[in-house]
Design a protein that fits this description.
The structure is a single chain. The chain has 456 residues and is α+β, with helices and mostly antiparallel strands. It is built from 14 helices and 16 strands. Strands 8, 9, 10, 11, 12, 13, 14, 15 and 16 form a nine-stranded mixed sheet that branches. It has a four-stranded mixed sheet with strand order 3-2-1-7. Strand 9 and strand 10 form a beta hairpin. The longest helix has 31 residues. It is globular and about 70 Å long.
């Protein structure tokens, strides 16, 4: 029996019997994800209003029929059951959805008394390990739809719910691995936990303690300094007394009551770490006016050619492609290795791609954001297997807020490229659940016009 796998934790992917299937239309991917998590059948009118809120019901239902036809063409006809009023994923088909499995595992884990000091059963650890392994990234990471506020709200609240559950599961598994002395895995779990909230001092303290327990005193000191600098930069506060006490322990060295651990002369390069990356999210915007069928076909071909060229240019600029469709692309600069000019190369790529689009009479919207991310490299550290962090969704949110041919950046990117890029005044952009300070990036400044120092 054929098996359909829908992965929504991280950049969305779909597989049939283990073979990836390309769903190149963002609305189709969003529709499939929404149906996959729906509690039963969904009315066509509700879906039409959710995905096409700005047009009348007849045209919205016609668009819905086109998206369903596309999904059936790509996936086959056996997965979707529909009548004139409702649509549902066939409950009798073999469909695996990672979010549903993750929720079931978390429900099972919550039945265990984790306050008990006795070692947890192997089954409990297996559930925790499987749940955290399913979480490749935030819900629909880097994925966004324009002009669909209802879908945006649904995506945002699902993301927050799943992120909270993931943080809880990581905290539990981190405690278990520390208690059993598996310090290497505990270190990786702490780094993944920090990717969710880089300013969580309690997790920084745990990570420092893990490094000390493993004899990595130099790494522990670097982690403390990194945390202190981040707290000062982001919040204008010093480390807590507990963290400062850990700093004193690091400087004091092993005490009489603490067995001395071997301290390597130079720590091995880690397979997993947290550092700053710069994310670029680009979307091709639809035509403003209806055109002939021939013109639409030529435009579609131009879009395909343009996005293929986008992927090639971004890879040539040492970016990692996280998600790509026939409408958009999400890429990260600085994974697996960060460079001082990641932000500059990212914006140079954004401007180059915008110019290339204009030459094809296309309009693109681009969002750029910089922030901390969890990076796990492959065995030879030549590429990043995993990139996890809110910065990816922030770039997608900024892209969704950008107008035609606009490049919108967050405050961190602005600071990293100050004096090298011509920016607008700061603007407040409503993103999911908050207002964000952002700027429109106009162009690179010529060498002679560059300034130095930080902005006032």
């Amino acid at each position: 029996m054929t098996r359909l796998e829908i992965a929504l934790l991280g950049a969305p992917t779909v597989s049939l019997d283990g073979k990836l299937v390309s769903i190149n239309r963002n609305k189709s991917m969003a529709l499939l994800g929404y149906l996959a998590l729906a509690d039963g059948a969904v009315r066509r009118d509700s879906l039409a209003t959710l995905f096409w809120p700005e047009i009348d019901q007849n045209h919205a239902r016609a668009n819905l029929r086109r998206e369903l036809a596309y999904l059936r063409t790509v996936l086959g006809t056996e997965w979707l059951t529909a009548d004139r009023e409702e649509i549902v994923l066939d409950p009798n088909a073999e469909i695996h959805v990672d979010v549903l499995t993750f929720r079931v595992l978390l429900t099972q884990i919550q039945t265990i008394d984790w306050a008990d000091e006795s070692p947890p059963e192997e089954q409990a650890i297996a559930w925790l390990t499987e749940a955290t392994g399913l979480y490749r990234g935030d819900f629909l990471e880097g994925f966004s739809l324009r002009d669909t506020p209802g879908f945006d709200d649904w995506q945002y609240y699902a993301l927050e719910e799943l992120r909270r559950k993931f943080a809880w599961a990581l905290d539990l598994l981190l405690q278990v691995q520390r208690r059993t002395g598996n310090l290497e895995l505990a270190q990786e779990l702490a780094l993944r936990r920090l990717a969710i909230d880089p300013l969580d001092e309690a997790v920084h303290a745990q990570l420092i303690q893990i490094y000390l327990e493993a004899g990595k005193r130099n790494t522990a000191l670097r982690q403390y300094n990194h945390c202190a600098a981040m707290l000062e930069r982001e919040l204008g506060i010093p480390p807590s007394p507990a963290l400062q006490a850990l700093r004193d322990v690091i400087h004091a060295g092993p005490s009489d009551s603490t067995p001395a651990l071997p301290i390597p002369q130079q720590d091995e390069p880690p397979d997993a770490e947290i550092h700053t990356v710069v994310a670029l999210s680009l979307s091709v915007l639809p035509e403003r006016a209806a055109r002939s069928i021939d013109e639409l076909a030529r435009t579609a071909q131009h879009v395909d050619d343009f996005l293929a060229a986008c992927r090639e240019r971004l890879c040539a600029a040492a970016a990692r492609i996280v998600y790509a469709s026939s409408e958009s692309v999400l890429a990260v600069f600085g994974a697996p290795t960060a460079h001082e000019d990641d932000a500059q190369r990212c914006l140079r790529s954004a401007f180059d791609l915008r110019s290339a689009a204009e030459q094809l009479d296309l309009a693109v919207a681009t969002g750029v954001a910089a922030g901390q991310a969890y990076i796990r490299s492959d065995s030879d550290r030549s590429s990043a297997e995993t990139v996890l962090g809110p910065v990816l969704n922030l770039a997608a949110d900024l892209q969704r807020a950008a107008g035609r041919s606009e490049v919108i950046v967050d405050g961190a990117t602005y600071l990293l490229t100050y004096g090298q890029v011509d920016y607008s005044e700061a603007v407040h952009i409503p993103l999911r659940g908050r207002l964000a300070d952002a700027r429109r990036a106009r162009s690179l400044l010529s060498q002679g016009n560059e300034t130095t120092g930080l902005p006032a």
